[in-house]
Amino acid sequence: MKLLMIINAHSGLKNSKAHLLDVIDIFCRNGYTVTTYVTQKKDDAREYLLKNRIPYDVVCVFGGDGTMNEVTNALMCRKHQPLLGYFPSGTMNDFGSNFDLGSDFVKIAERICEGNVRSFDVGCFNGRYFNYVAAFGAMCDVPFTTDRDAKELLGNVAYIMEGISKLPEIKKNHVTYHINGKTYTKDILFGLIYSGNRVAGMELETKRKAAIDDGMFNVLLVDYVPTIFEAPDLITTVLQSSKHIHRYRSDHMVLEFEDDVIWTLDGEEAKVKNKAEITIINKALRILA
């Protein structure tokens, strides 16, 4: 069996790759022929998979949610879709939490070799794919504007520091959105369209276990907060019931903005010209977990 390991050596903390050789050893002992590729630049994982047409049985991602996003975007464009494995070595690792992967990479490798397959939904955003979240608005650019060296040194504290520095830039987004046969127009501070439970380390679905394979995404929109002094209370507000919080579940949504908008897809930047159309593809890919 052929297994490709795509490794992002720059994701997460500096010691997150300590057990890489142990992982490769486990795969070899379980009958896999292992090929490794270390990414050299942004979007390299996607480009490598699109150019490399070898029919691997398994593609393992050793990196963060952004690297996993690149691999998903490549596999969704390939006729042959191998099984996935994921070693979440990034800073937040929200996607891996849906499969209870944890941070013990030896155990993850052993689970992969057990062969238990789970399917998961993939979101489609204006023709580009995402695994667990599309977000816009206040501080949503923090994941891709935070300095890489700071993330390696400080972990999620670097995100907090970057977020605080952006408080003076917070502004409203005038949005008309269409969902479940209805149309709404609101001033929105930020919005999340997501699958699963967790975004930016926060458990958003506290009353029920949100599925990542049910063919539906969750929508959370927060009304614009008129004064910047209320911004530090945003996280508390989101996690509680409020008249300023709007929640939906759907498999299709269209959002129209007055101005161009910067989104984040699984922590990666996506610039949008006024309009975003989002759909969900049920059980699009399979992961060994």
Describe this structure in words.
By secondary structure, the chain is an alpha+beta fold. The protein is 24% helix and 37% strand. The strands form 3 sheets. Strands 5, 6, 7, 8, 9, 12, 13, 14, 15, 16 and 17 form an 11-stranded antiparallel beta sheet that branches. It has a 4-stranded parallel beta sheet with strand order 2-1-3-4, sandwiched between helices. About 9% of the residues have low confidence.
Q: Can you describe this structure in just a few lines?
A:
By secondary structure, the protein is α+β, with helices and mostly antiparallel strands.
For the structure shown, list the relevant keywords.
about 290 residues, Rossmann fold, 2 domains, 4-stranded parallel beta sheet, 17 strands, elongated
How many strands, which pairing sense, and closed or not: the largest β-sheet?
A: 11 strands, antiparallel
Indicate how many domains the architecture comprises: 2
**What's the CATH topology label of the largest domain?**
Tumour Suppressor Smad4
Beta percentage is 35-45%
What is the count of helical runs? 9
Give the uncertain stretches in residue-range form: 142-168
Shape: elongated
Helix content: 10-25%
Rounded mean pLDDT is 82
Rg calc: 19 Å
Give me the count of strands. Answer: 17
Q: What structural class is derived from the secondary structure elements?
A: alpha+beta
